[in-house]
Amino acid sequence: MIVPLGCNWVVKILIVLACCLLALYFFLSSLPTSSIRLSSSNLYCPISPLSNDVQLILKTTATEVLENLPVHLETTLRCVPNYLIYSDHAESLADIPIHDALSSLPTVLGSPRPEFALYNHLRTHGRAGLNTTLTLNTTSAATLEKWKTIPTLHDVLHRRPTAKWYVFIDLDTYIVWPNLLAYLSRFDARKPWYIANRAHLGNHPQVFANGDAGYALSAPAIRKMLAHISLHRKNFESLIESEWAADILMYQALKDVGIEMFSSYPHFQGDAPAGLNFNATQIGRQPWCYAPVSYGNMRPEERRALWKFEQGWQRRWEGSGAVLRHRDVFKGLVLPRLPAARRGWDNMWWNLEREEQEAWFSFTQCRTLCESLAKCRQFAYAVGKCEISDELTLGYETVKGVNWLKSQMPDVTSGWVVKRFPEYVKKMDLSCERHGGNDWVTT
Ligand SMILES: *[C@@H]1O[C@H](CO)[C@@H](O)[C@H](O)[C@H]1NC(C)=O
Ligand SMILES: *[C@@H]1O[C@H](CO)[C@@H](O)[C@H](O)[C@H]1NC(C)=O
Ligand SMILES: *[C@@H]1O[C@H](CO)[C@@H](O)[C@H](O)[C@H]1NC(C)=O
Q1: In what residue span(s) does the Fringe-like glycosyltransferase domain sit (predicted)?
Q2: Which of 53, 111, 256, 261 sits CB 3.0–4.6 Å from 164 for a disulfide?
Q3: Considering 218, 251, 269, which residue would you say is the last residue of a domain?
Q4: Does residue 128 line the site of ligand 1, with CB under 6 A?
Q5: How far apart are CA 405 and CA 272, in angstroms?
């Protein structure tokens, strides 16, 4: 058959066009849709009957939202079906509403007070008002915190009356969601529970919950406390005025209705893995063998790294019934980052006595001293100072990190005795055997 010339051209053009469309199709399908599908199928979230019964509440202030919230949204919150965010300023981030913790205050507690300067300023000027020195006053944000506590509880119960558990965390707290669900499922949520990490103020007898670690309240605990407060509103206002921090206020308000804090150390943890001594003993327990439910004081990049590690770990052990322990975090995230020496770095835990003055002369002499003592595992040197320890901790860079002695010793070099790591890990692992397989603190 003879095909006319013109028609041949049309066929050629059609073929080219078809090829182009095909190429475009493959190009487009390799773009967003495919990567979204990939990432969500890569997401490990626990399947637990309690998942929908736990209401997570994130407490924040307008001054830290932009720095700290996005990482939550990209990591742990992807697995949490019910969460609410409370701040001192109502706004929304990526379509997630951030509620004003104080919006119900006039009806709950009476007229506003002088410490509401920051709040009122934000109400008038919005986020743009953050540029002024007034709102950068962190003392004022902290003072406001205790006034936010009770109105937040009211609002949470109003928005989510049916949850069994209400878990409160700060925006720099990391929640190990699978462990939180596993832990809470061991308590009877029909009873009033206040599960937290005990804290002291130095030698002060006042006990309270370490808010950095977060805490869990069962629904009956919140209801009992709020009922009591609405009956004794005047007394409560004076309680708020007399206590200086939200955490102490909470502890006291629950104690007033007969709900004692249940100390869950070391599940709820106020320190980040980098700042934590994994052998720190409290109430006869060390973190190492137990499961972390939270880590407090986490920088955004630390939370991102822990999320990546946790996701990998959960996927690797999926279906095995294994529970992530503090020791897994130490072995996976801390240990690989302990080099022989690190300049401009503070490893933070020094607990051994030392007498040799020569050690103060140089980093090398400080190391020699540490290596000469059988139990020394890490040390830190700054001009004229050598500190040694039998702990193993990572710590932070001295420039912007947590640093006890920043003012006296700006140039700290930390060192670790790497050859002693295996013995430490082995000893710590062996210490878990006396738990007899009981890994959860419930009594
Ligand atoms: C905030 O302050 C900076 C300078 O400190 C200024 O350049 C900027 O325009 C201010 N922004 C607002 C919203 O006022
Ligand atoms: C910060 O706020 C507190 C209480 O609201 C106030 O006493 C203090 O003077 C303020 N500090 C500065 C530097 O403005
Ligand atoms: C951990 O701390 C306890 C004391 O609290 C101590 O007896 C034990 O030797 C320490 N473990 C290691 C491996 O240093």
Answers
A1: 159-230
A2: 53
A3: 269
A4: yes
A5: 19
Same domain, 353 and 215: no
pLDDT(15) > 70:
no
Is any ligand 1 atom within 6 A of the Cβ of residue 31?
A: no
CA of 226 to the centre of ligand 2 (A): 31
CB 254 within 8 A of CB 153: no
* Ligand showing the shortest atom-to-Cα distance for residue 279: 3
Q: Which domain holds residue 122?
A: 51-269
| Helical H segments across 112-167, by residue range | 117-125, 138-159
Ligand closest to 135 (CA) is 2
Q: Which two tokens mark 396?
A: 């932070």
Domain count across the chain: 2
| Ligand 1 pocket check for 133: Cβ under 6 Å | no
Q: pLDDT-based confidence at 16, cuts 50/70/90?
A: low
Q: Convert the pLDDT of each residue in 347-391 to its tens digit.
A: 988 888 877 777 778 999 999 999 999 999 999 998 888 999 999
The pLDDT-based confidence of 284 (bands split at 50, 70, 90) is confident
Tell me, yes or no, whether 343 and 250 share the same domain: no
Atom of ligand 1 nearest to the CA of 128: 13
Q: Does residue 281 line the site of ligand 3, with CB under 6 A?
A: yes
Residue with the smallest CA separation from ligand 2 atom 10 is 137
Instruction: Give the bridge partners for 57, in sequence order.
Output: 84, 168
| Inside any domain, residue 36 | no
Cβ–ligand 3 contact at 426 (below 6 Å): no
Q: For residues 26 and 29, what is the distance between their CA atoms, to the nearest angstrom? A: 5
Residue 318 falls within a domain, yes or no? no
Q: Which of 269, 290, 309 delimits the end of a domain?
A: 269
Do the beta carbons of residue 167 and residue 215 sit within 8 Å? yes
Residues with CB under 6 A from ligand 2: 115, 137, 139-140, 143
Q: Counting atoms of ligand 2 from 1, which one is nearest the CA of 115?
A: 5
Higher pLDDT, 22 or 221: 221
Kindly state whether residue 40 falls inside one of the protein's structural domains: no
What CATH number is attached to the domain comprising 217? 3.90.550.50
In angstroms, rounded to a whole number, what is the distance separating the alpha carbons of residues 156 and 159? 5
Atom of ligand 1 minimally distant from the CA of 131: 1
70 and 218 together in one domain: yes
User: Do the strands 165-170 and 396-397 form a parallel or antiparallel pair, or are they unpaired?
Assistant: unpaired
Is residue 147 a part of any domain in this protein?
A: yes
Record the pTM.
0.84
Q: In ligand 3, which atom is closest to the CA atom of 391?
A: 14
The CATH number that applies at residue 351 is: 3.50.4
Residue with the smallest CA separation from ligand 3 atom 5 is 281
